[in-house]
Specification:
By secondary structure, the protein is an alpha/beta fold. About 45% of the residues lie in helices and about 20% in strands. It is built from eleven helices and ten strands. About 35% of the residues are buried.
Length: about 300
């Protein structure tokens, strides 16, 4: 997710570093916009130029460079660029998430989706359900699902196995997710019952119990990377919230198509409240749940 930043005020950095009031020329903006779009599908519209400038300036300043063009050459370098890409992705994205963030979706998972998937699996003689948090950020969504499965679903269906995978383009938040250690902000909407049962307070942080941490596999992945996406197969539920809003139409079609390919027949997809598949894909069937909607692959 992106966060708007006010770049109206200028700040004088140390000598030799970029002044925050510097702006990109139209040519440079288009050069950066194309590079980012080609590599991760995120499209900066004209009115978001200031946002891109603000984000890139942080890396330019850190590296001791002086211009947007110089930083572009640095990123484009075949050796330096490969190492810098992860920091570039961190610079242009921001992660806003917390446990139990979208309760109506989790209610639908508990009351509707998992019972339907379990019934379908039993008919097929299968006992495994795969779940993918496709923009997992620092892991709160994936771990919320793991808590729900352990506390509500597994006691009812002990014969079933659940696999949870979390992926994100930002490698730093992926490493944070693997630790399962969170500040109070992340757990602010966690029901007291779950907080007491599955978290241990350590100073000003909250450590998830090892059995929950071990229930999720996290890895760094770009949803716009076709090769990587081909390895994601056989999922029964995919959560991909607040990602599509940052893509243009063509990128949305491409990513949604790959999500469809990653799913089993009968699988479900959840996206964000402000997102829709209308006009993007007719492959999914719209499903209404109490206070939320989802999509089903039939």
């Amino acid at each position: 997710m992106f966060q708007s930043l006010n770049t109206a005020q200028t700040t004088n950095f140390e000598a030799g570093k970029l002044n925050s009031g510097q702006t990109m020329s139209p040519k440079t903006f288009e050069m950066w916009r194309k590079y980012i779009y080609d590599n991760c599908g995120i499209y900066f519209q004209d009115n978001k130029k200031y946002l891109l400038e603000s984000r890139l300036q942080k890396r330019i300043t850190y590296l001791g460079l002086t211009t947007f063009e110089e930083y572009f050459s640095f990123v484009s370098d075949s050796i330096k660029g490969n190492q810098e890409k992860k920091y570039l992705y961190e610079a242009i994205t921001i992660n806003e998430t917390f446990f139990f963030r979208n309760q109506p979706q989790f209610d639908a998972i508990i009351n509707n989706i998992l019972p339907d998937l379990i019934q379908r699996k039993r008919i097929l003689g299968q006992r495994k359900i795969k779940i993918w948090s496709a923009a997992s950020s620092s892991g709160e969504e994936a771990y919320t699902i793991a808590i729900i499965l352990k506390d509500i679903i597994k006691p009812k269906y002990p014969e079933f196995e659940f696999e949870i995978v979390g992926t994100d383009i930002n490698s730093t938040v992926v490493e944070t997710a693997k630790k399962g250690l969170y500040k109070e902000y992340s757990i602010r909407q966690t029901p007291p019952y779950y907080l007491k049962k599955y978290f241990t307070r350590i100073d000003n942080a909250f450590q998830l119990n090892p059995d929950i941490v071990n229930a999720v596999t996290f890895k760094n992945m770009n949803l716009y990377d076709e090769f990587a996406m081909r390895s994601m197969l056989g999922f029964d539920l995919i959560m991909c919230a607040n990602v599509l809003i940052y893509f243009d139409f063509e990128s949305k079609v491409k990513v949604v198509s790959k999500l469809y390919d990653a799913m089993n027949t009968g699988g479900y997809l959840f996206i964000g409240y402000s997102e829709t598949l209308h006009g993007i894909s007719k492959a999914f069937k719209l499903i209404s749940f109490p206070k939320t909607i989802g999509y089903k692959k039939e």
